[in-house]
Automatic annotation (TrEMBL):
Keywords: Heme, Iron, Metal-binding, Monooxygenase, Oxidoreductase
Keyword check for Manganese: no
Annotated stretches, region: Disordered: 1-54
Protein name as annotated: Cytochrome P450
Compositional bias per record (Basic and acidic residues), positions renumbered to this chain: 8-34
């Protein structure tokens, strides 16, 4: 057996005293004095508490070195904290009620904003994740029908079959590169279901290379280099984007050449006619395809990686999951009809997404100077809704750093709705939420019926484009011999 002490899943840098301080801080002291008075406007409201970093650089170094630790530090300052990093002014928000304000109740006062747009322009400037206002509304309306329960449920069989094939390939006792294996799995499922295309290994590698190049160019120090200065990361990015563009062009050309009716997302994109009679231009089709290839695979595969990792470290959870598999499935694989009965599996997924939300933070920008939590928030600040940190806050979660799927056995009526929001919220919540939840449940049960996972080295989650667990090598034991 491995030394599991070095393989725990709690992050070590937060001490018990810090935990207590966070618990005791409470919400009241953390808001602006004028929070209760909605008539106090931008001009009269106080500025948020500010956490200064280094002169000129602000918290840029900490941002790149350990973004999660920077979040811990800011969270200790209060629920709304201003700071500078990467040449921008941010306001970090750690209060679920304020998250709900920004995403839902006052959603039309905030946009994705410059920071998100800058990032998205590296990949798909006209894709659904990025566009705003009327353009977003008409795109979302057009694409939403591809995600109805009836449509999504047709994909269950592919999700199960591919997971079964993956696990059946693993030799007993071997060490598998889990994150990479699950990344290939989720990309292939996404392509075969929503887009009805087969991405062979070579084409899949083009997408994954592009994902890696973007992560490097945005989260490495080279992102600080001036745009005119070519660095190894920017050169890799240019190459990867050219490869991705060729691939997308080929996929579209191949589809246009095929005869017969298609009823999938790619067909929706290619044949779309908006109510005013216009169609989607080639550039937007390209961006949309790229958006879905990216938004829909790294997120699900990292969540699945964390779920397997967590199960490996928590035998009592694994035991309860196995008991559910025996009761609900007996000796067969799951189907869509089993989904509602796989209640504990769903709690495992929910708890995984609480501890390790792949989209670890959301960004917004006010459309005009405003107040948030009683603090003046100017139109040029970037608001950072701190998903990861809110989901581990002791005010809303008992033993917040622990993996306890049973915490969801019952609803806690005192917990704010936005104490967990792994899929965002409001009109711009994740369009793929139902797809992802179904895939996670089906893949997890299909894998768990076949293998047990054993940790072989610690993980070190780092905030890149998604909350990246690293390679996550895991030893697999076939269940007959486990
Ligand atoms: C565990 C898996 C997933 C997680 C945690 C996740 C998380 C999120 C979050 C937090 C947002 C909101 C972003 C914001 O408000 O700024 C979002 C939006 C989005 N997601 Fe997901 N996602 C997942 C899977 C998927 C899948 C499978 C697809 C596609 C098949 C997808 C496509 C999208 C798209 C297109 C948007 C933008 C929606 C809009 O702005 O209208 N996601 N996702």
């Amino acid at each position: 057996m491995t030394d599991t002490d070095s393989l725990t899943d709690e992050r070590p840098h937060r001490t018990a005293a810090e935990e207590r301080a966070r618990d005791e801080r409470g919400t009241d002291t953390a808001r602006g004095e004028d929070a209760s008075d909605p008539t106090v406007g931008f001009d009269d409201a106080p500025s948020p508490p500010r956490d200064d970093g280094l002169p000129l650089l602000g918290h840029t170094v900490a941002w790149f070195r350990d973004g999660l630790a920077l979040g811990d530090r800011l969270q200790r300052r209060g629920d709304v904290v201003e700071y500078d990093a990467v040449g921008r002014q941010f306001v970090a928000v750690f209060d679920p009620e304020l998250v709900e304000e920004v995403l839902v109740t006052r959603g039309d006062e905030f946009q994705k904003g410059e920071f998100e747009t800058e990032f998205a322009s590296l990949l798909a400037p006209n894709g659904l994740v990025t566009v705003e206002d009327d353009e977003w509304r008409r795109q979302r309306r057009l694409l939403q029908p591809a995600f109805t329960p009836g449509r999504i449920e047709q994909f269950a069989e592919t999700m199960v079959d591919d997971a079964a094939a993956l696990a059946d390939d693993w030799a007993d006792g071997s060490v598998v590169p889990l994150r990479e294996a699950l990344s290939s799995y989720s990309l292939s499922v996404l392509a075969r279901t929503l887009l009805a295309i087969d991405l062979d290994a070579e084409r899949g590698a083009v997408v994954r290379e592009a994902a890696e190049a973007i992560a490097e160019v945005t989260t490495g120090v080279s992102s600080l280099a001036p745009e005119w200065l070519p660095t190894p990361a920017t050169r890799r990015y240019d190459r990867a984007m050219a490869g991705l563009d060729d691939l997308v062009a080929a996929l579209i050309a191949e589809r246009r050449e095929t005869t017969g009716e298609h009823d999938d997302l790619l067909a929706t994109l290619l044949d779309a006619t908006y109510p005013d009679g216009s169609t989607m231009d080639a550039e937007t089709v390209r961006d949309q395809l790229v958006t879905f290839l990216f938004a829909g695979h790294e997120t699900s595969s990292t969540a699945l990686t964390y779920a397997c990792w967590l199960l490996a470290g928590h035998p009592e959870v694994r035991e309860r999951l196995d008991a559910e598999l025996t009761t609900v499935l007996g000796d067969r694989d799951p189907t869509v009809a089993d989904l509602s009965a796989l209640q504990y599996t769903e709690q495992v997924v929910e708890e995984t997404l609480r501890l390790y939300p792949p989209v670890f933070t959301l960004y917004r920008q006010p459309v005009a100077d405003t107040t948030l939590g009683g603090y003046a928030t100017s139109a040029d600040t970037t608001i950072q809704l701190a998903t990861y940190h809110i989901q581990r806050d002791g005010r809303w979660w008992d033993a917040p750093e622990e993996f306890r799927p049973e915490r969801f056995d019952d609803d806690d009526p005192d917990r704010p709705d936005y104490a967990a929001f792994p899929f965002g919220g409001g009109p711009r919540h994740c369009i793929g939420m139902r797809f992802a939840t179904m895939e996670l449940k089906l893949a997890l049960t299909t894998l768990a019926r076949r293998v047990r996972f054993e940790r072989v080295e610690p993980i070190d989650p780092s905030p890149r484009v998604v909350l990246d667990p690293g390679e996550t090598p895991m030893r697999v034991w076939r269940r007959e011999s486990a």
